[in-house]
């Protein structure tokens, strides 16, 4: 009897929570769409995400095939965005560069979240010497200029996806640790936490299932902005020659190869630069929109 009752209640509770989550997602999407700049950012992010997922289907040429007879050609029916200094199709290389940029951004941000969130949560919840030890470690990371630390790591370990994850992700760890710590400090003295303790919940479950969910909102905004930062850092390192080696279709490397031909063939630099700019702009505008969603006081109706 109890089993059948549980089986009946379970799906109802699940459907109610699913419906509530759906309504919340719909309301958040409406707020973003009502903000023109945020909706523009969402559009750019969706386009970049779709291009990175469908890159093998969108690419029309071999990104590594060189044709010196067609080098630095302008946009045409065969090469929609023209060719680079080696006669390679620029559109194809930009499309495949999207895969590299998004892969680096996802890996770096994921690494920063996996390291920074537990450190911040432990520091804020435990306090005392644990808080002191973790925050001094975070201060040590902050003492190094982020871009310089990334350059040093890549120069020492060589260019690879793992190296870029570490170089970009480690520099973002302090922001997540400090944000989560502040959120946990604000939440751990509230009534619902005391109520959870009185019901016999373990400290770990209280932290993970009660407190941390209330710290997600500002963290999502930071994740969106860090996507833009990771793409910018990867492009910068590639432009400086510290990223992926040629002939990898990286946006920064494409800019580096085209910088000496700005007067002769400006399209070779304009299109990769536009890809970087629009992608970063999209994530930043989306981050502003998410801030409006999670803090309605900032949103003007």
Protein traits:
301 residues; mainly alpha; MetI-like fold; 74% helix; disordered N terminus
Task: Please describe what this structure looks like.
The chain has helices spanning 2-34, 36-53, 55-58, 90-126, 128-143, 146-157, 161-187, 191-198, 203-211, 216-239, 251-258, 267-294. The chain is mostly helical. It has one domain (21-298): Orthogonal Bundle (MetI-like fold). α2 (36-53) packs across α4 (90-126) and α4 runs antiparallel to α5 (128-143). The longest helix is centred in the middle third of the chain and has 37 residues, at 90-126. The relative contact order is 0.14. Mean pLDDT is 84; it is low at 1-10.
Quick summary of this structure?
By secondary structure, this protein is mainly alpha-helical. The chain has a single domain, classed as MetI-like fold. It contains 12 helices and no strands.
